[in-house]
Amino acid sequence: MADITAQMVKTLRETTGLGMMECKKALAETDGDMKAAEDLLRIRSGAKAGKAAGRIAAEGVVAACIADDGRHGALVEVNCETDFVSRNEDFIDFARNLAQWVAGNDVADIAALSAAILPGGETVDGLRQGLVMKLGENISVRRFARHVTEGNLAFYLHGTRIGVMVDYTGGDEALGRDLAMHIAASKPLCVSRDQVSPDLLERERQIYTAQAAESGKPADIVARMVEGRIAKYLAEVTLLGQPFVKDPDRVVEKLLAEKSATVKGFTLFVVGEGIEKKSGDFAAEVMAQVNQVKVDQVSQPG
How do residues 113-154 score in pLDDT, each as one tens digit? Predict the structure, then answer.
């Protein structure tokens, strides 16, 4: 059996990013064959990733990158199970490197991104599985958005949990950042009224109509009440209709007009948005596990 040296373990750790004991064990099982040990760890990390895949991952980070040309940019959301892992530097670096790669490469969807080969020669999913093995949690690349523009791009990250990228023309860099910060704070659904989903608008109209009808007012008054509520709703959910967060006396549409600027589009990611988080009594779960251990001990033959 080959002697497993500290240098061999160190090299394998640097290659895989996994723990010292895992690397030492893999080298021992493969008789010091570095390549075979790396393959073994990849197989195991894949198996661990598969076991973890069913667990809810609603924590994580949003990462952003604008390419040096200023015309290509990307937002990426990567999820994990706990806030603790979301602060891990390896996890954060994975998300940042992914955003940088997406900014410079046209990729169709998450499946294509997972299969993409990064500069180090590893696939995105291979690196993800390595993180699962190392950190012990379900980790998933949930979504990404790539912007390509003839105008300007700006992004804003509120910590690592909210990310915005905005595509605009005119104005200056300060305006771009202000717009991104506004979107992060006010969370509009779209840029302008004509982009609001007709189905969503009809749903709101039905609700307002039912509410107004309960007032007992004449039909013409009810109709005017509904249209007033719809106008207010559109102002609340569209970027152009919202009061600018830095100057609530001006709506964003007026701010843009003053700067001779327009907004072509934006992407807003909030970590875990739309993911149903598991709720439960942690203490009860611990006691249930303790009780199960006691049952198992009693059931074992003495």
Answer: 999 998 888 899 999 988 988 888 889 999 999 999 999 999
In the chain the domains, ranked by start, together with CATH numbers, are 6-52 (1.10.8.10), 59-186+262-270 (3.30.479.20), 199-232 (no CATH)
Token pair listed for 156: 């804003």
Question: Which residues lie across from 270 on neighbouring strands?
Answer: 162
Q: Contact at 8 Å (CB) between 153 and 67?
A: no
Cα–Cα distance, 80 to 59 (Å, whole number): 5
Measure CA 157 to chain center: 12
Residues 6+ apart with CB under 8 A from 248: none
Q: How far apart are CA 204 and CA 184, in angstroms?
A: 24
pLDDT tens digit sequence for 38-50? 877 767 665 555 5
Give residue for tokens 């709506």: 251
Q: Which own/partner contact pairs does 204-211 have at CB distance under 8 Å and 24+ positions apart?
A: 204/229, 204/230, 204/233, 205/230, 208/233
Residue 176: both structure tokens together: 């771009």
